[in-house]
Fold:
Amino acid sequence: MTPSGTGSTFYNFCSLANCPDGWHPVTGLLQTTNRDFYGTTGSSGTSAGPSTIFKITTSGTLTTLYTFCPGSCPSGGPSTLIEATDGNFYGTTDGGPAVFKMTPSGKLTTLYTLSPTDQIPSALIQAIDGDFYGTTFYGGTNTCPNQFQDNIGCGTIFKITSSGVFTTLHSFDFSDGAWPEGPLIQATDGNFYGTTTGGGYGWGTVFRLTPTGTLTTLHIFCSQGCLDGQIPYAGLVQATNGDLYGTARDGGAGPCYILGQGCGTVFSLSVGLGPFVKMLPSAAPAGEVIRILGTDLTGATSVTFNGTASGFSVASPTQILAKVPAGATTGDIQATLPGGTLSSKVDFDVLRRPAE
Structure:
């Protein structure tokens, strides 16, 4: 879809008999450094076809890279993929459940099989230490009050290395939250932030976790008449002003069609973090123009790529257009403004052109 709203369909799943290309692509797409898109499908039942990992170009050419269980995947499919700094893809599966690594050519390796009670792992993130972090909806060492799953834990937060060393960092006990579903984020302070869909003696929480596993509950939903929202299924994002933003499925001013509850909310939470800049895309070769997003960028006097000055123009108060300078190396991007210098949260990857 174009920014003006003109849309077109460039691939239809299940276009062949018995859906060998997969069914139910529900996790979204990932655009990688080669500019192609990668995604997953999940299925249920033998007539629906397999769960798969696929690659699709911007012209609509789809390639199935890996098939999890030809014919039937009744336990669900893989999560949203991430592209790691080693060039491989990482993700989780509901059925199993497990954490896997896949090469760009489609060779898949199961890094770790979770306990059967640690069900429904979220999508992973790769932290600045190179390890991967995620949550499980159920599991852990604390029995959780749940009318549907007796004697099953309230969920966990875990980390896993690229070699498969797995560590449980935190087990929720309901008082500090329960049933996390969305992925974590690592904010500019190096800590992890996320949500739970229940617990906290309310209807979900926002929490902070240090890399060593110390958890702090930052907000409990529905503690003030539910105007703040209920059941935040999705994860959080950190905006370039430093604040956290998210959504809650229910609650708000309402009423809505479900039992008179609100129809959901969009919320922000300030945790005292400062502004930064973000680049789109996060990787490009020298000579290419990228967008640098931020807050109050008017008056910028310089832009550098890991210390190398770039030619740039301020397109709007929230956007700078900058050319990746010759000789630039992978590292952070900095924009100097009248009020100070803003840095990127993650490194920008300077790519080599194919002829180089």
Remarks:
- The chain is about 0% helix and 35% strand.
- The chain has a mean pLDDT of 86.
- Residues 56 and 62 are 4 Å apart (CA to CA).
- The radius of gyration is 22 Å.
